[in-house]
Structure prediction request, 948 residues.
Amino acid sequence: MKPTDIKNPEYFHKVVDCQYACPAHTPVPEYIRLIAAEKYTEAYMINWDSNVFPGILGRTCDRPCEPACRRGRVEEEPVAICRLKRVAADNKGEVKSLMPQIPEEKNGKKIALIGGGPASLTVARDLAPLGYEIHLYDEWNKGGGMMRTQIPAFRLPEEVLDEEVNYILDMGIHTHFNTYVNSMKSILDKGYDAVFVGTGAPKGRDLSRLPGRKEGDANIHIGIEWLAGVAFEHIENVGKKVIVLGGGNTAMDCCRTSLRIGADDVHVVVRSEYEKMKASPWEKEDAEAEGVIIMNNMPPKEFVVKDGKLVGVLFGHVNPVYDENGKRTLVPTGEPDTFIEATDVIIAIGQDNHCPWIERDLGIEFGKWDLPILNEVTFQSTLPKVFFGGDSALGPENVITAVAQAHQAAVSIDLFCQGKDVNERLDPMVNLVSQKMGIHEWMYDSAVADDERYKVPHADQKFSLKDRRMEVELGFDEKLGFKEAQRCLNCDIQTVFTTDRCIECDACMDICPTSCITFTSNGEEEDLRSRLLAPATNLTQDLYVSDILPTKRVMIKDEDVCLHCGLCAERCPTAAWDMQKFLYNVTKAHTGCISTVK
Amino acid sequence: MSFIKPTFGHPALPKNKVGYRKKDYEGVISTLCAGCGHDSISAAIVQTCYDLSIEPHRLAKLSGIGCSSKTPTYFLSNSHGFNSVHGRMPSVTTGANLANKDLIYMGVSGDGDSASIGMGQFVHVIRRNLNMVYIVMNNGCYGLTKGQDSATADFGSISKTGVPTSFQAIDLVGLALELKASFVARSFSGDKQQLVPLIKLAMTHPGFALIDVISPCVTFNNGAKSTKSYSFVRDHIEATSALDFVPKEEEITVNYQEGQSLEVELHDGSIVRLNKLAKDWNPRDRQSALNRLQKAKNEGEILTGLLYMDTETKDLHRLLNTVDTPLNQLREADLTPSIEALERINQSFR
Ligand SMILES: Cc1cc2nc3c(=O)[nH]c(=O)nc-3n(C[C@H](O)[C@H](O)[C@H](O)COP(=O)(O)OP(=O)(O)OC[C@H]3O[C@@H](n4cnc5c(N)ncnc54)[C@H](O)[C@@H]3O)c2cc1C
Ligand SMILES: Cc1ncc(C[n+]2csc(CCOP(=O)(O)OP(=O)(O)O)c2C)c(N)n1
Ligand code: SF4
Ligand code: SF4
Ligand code: SF4
Ligand SMILES: [Mg+2]
Prediction:
């Protein structure tokens, strides 16, 4: 193998598994260390810079970082990264003064943002400090998009949402609430320098062809419409027996909301197997803990209506069968159908993109599934001044993805408005600093804690099930937060190897608790992976390869289960190993004017 | 500063035949200087015991005084141990071995511990052919007391003091061969590929087994003009052969050309395969070992690997004709003759 090029920022970036997996590349270990040091404000600002909504995401994020967390490969469970974010948000001090100042004098450019969800709000936050005049349109009376209309208050209290949305709206954003934009042409005609579309994926799928759908309509609801109705108090109750159709997070929110507004018998019925359900494992757990019954492998066959009123749903039974390509067919088992009684049925089987308000003759082209045709790096549409981000761009995902895409769209809009090429984007900001303080002393807490993942305490169900606004999760207190923070392996503290310092004493190889380091003759990657001290079978993790050493061997480090404990560097007599903190910051439009705290 | 090793190990590493992970053979974190050769030897011992599926309670590690003699704290935490007085490890081991011959005895010493203060004990334990592994971690200096030249420092070699050694060196390997030790080997801390099979072989040997391991002292004796430095040893190392230890019941997979390799069956059924044999050398011929050693010396080479092995050797217990039961298990009834027996003895003197 060729020696590893550690000058390429992507090499070490990939070692920081959580940050790499985070769509917005939040510097996770950096903020976790700050939490352990009780520097909550600083930890909050690191988050705020990257993901814009730390308090919201600390409660609701889909947490793609956690399955990626290295800790989960060394023991049972990853670090509770998401809930630590909330610790920073809950305990922070004054932060407004740390946020970028908005210039009195504007730069003369006007931007329209259509939709008031996380995507548009992120673009607003990134561009307002640069002097853009920003106009935000949303059909509802407040900002937040689906974070407000969909995510129930028992998962995300309104105060938390308001606080973080307002940090942005207070940046002098011109809001046009209660305004449904029904023509893109009318917006373009207003002479904006650029338009950002962040309208989400607003259409909930229906089961219009299922018998009984029309007849039972009064008691059959579309999940996202129903949740918005509850959020805005147009819907205040539901019948005693509820069936939710679908297995995603929307279904989980619908069933748990039902329990809080009148239902006492709630079934979630899913076509697929339990393991294949789209809902996050913790969402399923929480729903079941509240008494929701989840039934699997049962596709609905008919809404049963008697005397003009819905009485329940008839389900078939299937077995999922996979062919060699992994494609699934649902094969009926032959068991008799099952009838489940219901007063109300909520359909939560997914959302579609839907932009009827964008005229199709403006030069904005649409492709498959009515999604706009975009450059997936710049998020520019086929009409150069129109950009997309969030669910409306590449299909429904989650808040953090919307934020990440919006950062990129904001960079593009800024370049576009300055008359520059949107493809000429700045590299990320990176920094690599030795952590050495003394012979065996580091600037970070290198000891590896044994603790298993701590559970977030929940509110007593006796109360939380009676009040749809009462937050279920109480969050870690400072003490638990500290302990959980100590579980982080500091994967951003990189092991950096300098070939010409190594005297090949083997000390690093001998001490490494997880047998990451091997000195051996060079070879092809596949061959090398098989003859290391411990076989390197996780192909998603790189091998760090040195130059040729005096004995003609090379140093190979398998990054897979390195604990970043620093022992290799402590036992190295020549400092051929050093522990160096790697900071990787995605370049955003406003980078340079934010007052980051150190 | 780390005082405690993380408890996590590589999740994919298997357990050995007796159900232990390699980690279970480790000790507490070393306090030796970073890069000390002794730590590598400790790691080789850990590897060996794991590979041989030794149950930790079946092994006793004993040592004298010195950085080298501190190492038993850094391996096999679950085994028996005795850190004795300077140069007295052999007599303590003799006592322990006589009391309980069922344990495996791993003696660890330094060049100061063995070639100076402990020289008397060293030669006598060889003479008695005590069943033990005797590892000398040989760095040519007294590391623990700040690097004075030891008796194994080569004439003219320069340590951190900057003064060339003015005395002739004692070669422990030559001495052991001269004293008819039943197993003699030399190795290098930086060559685990050789060291690990050598320790396996020594542990299987049913008598005294010496391995003199050159082990650089990074702090006091690793300069460019020291003959015990990493770079000097690497530049001058020679091996009698490449070594493959095949425990009994394991299939032999590698095949080498005939004439260049030799297979020796050990008393317990294990096999050692020696490949790329040195010319005119036979591990079972002491004279050939002495000749080869002398030749290497004349040519300025450091000869490593197995030098001599007597597979038919008789250890101290067999020489003394002790009972099969370990002496510490003999109860009063076994040891005290009955009245009648005493009567019979007295009668025989009439
Ligand atoms: C029930 C449910 C629960 C969810 N839970 C989570 C969760 O826990 N964590 C998570 O990360 N994600 C969750 N999501 C997904 C997440 O809400 C979305 O991915 C995210 O909000 C998308 O952001 P956005 O800015 O692209 O659009 P949205 O948040 O959808 O915002 C778009 C806004 O634009 C408005 N709008 C649309 N068209 C127009 C128009 N023509 N004129 C004016 N306004 C318009 C909409 O009303 C809306 O307010 C959930 C989604 C649902 C349905
Ligand atoms: C009876 C006695 N005399 C002298 C000493 C001082 N002393 C401690 S260690 C040592 C030399 C150790 O040298 P070596 O065995 O080569 O071990 P190293 O530290 O080099 O590994 C000496 C002389 C002692 N501890 N006890
Ligand atoms: S930091 Fe060094 S010693 Fe610690 S696990 Fe990683 S490679 Fe091994
Ligand atoms: S401890 Fe340092 S000098 Fe020794 S082998 Fe490792 S990197 Fe090289
Ligand atoms: S002084 Fe020398 S022998 Fe002692 S620990 Fe340090 S390097 Fe090893
Ligand atoms: Mg010594």
Observations:
- The domain at 204-351 of chain A is CATH 3.50.50.60 (FAD/NAD(P)-binding domain).
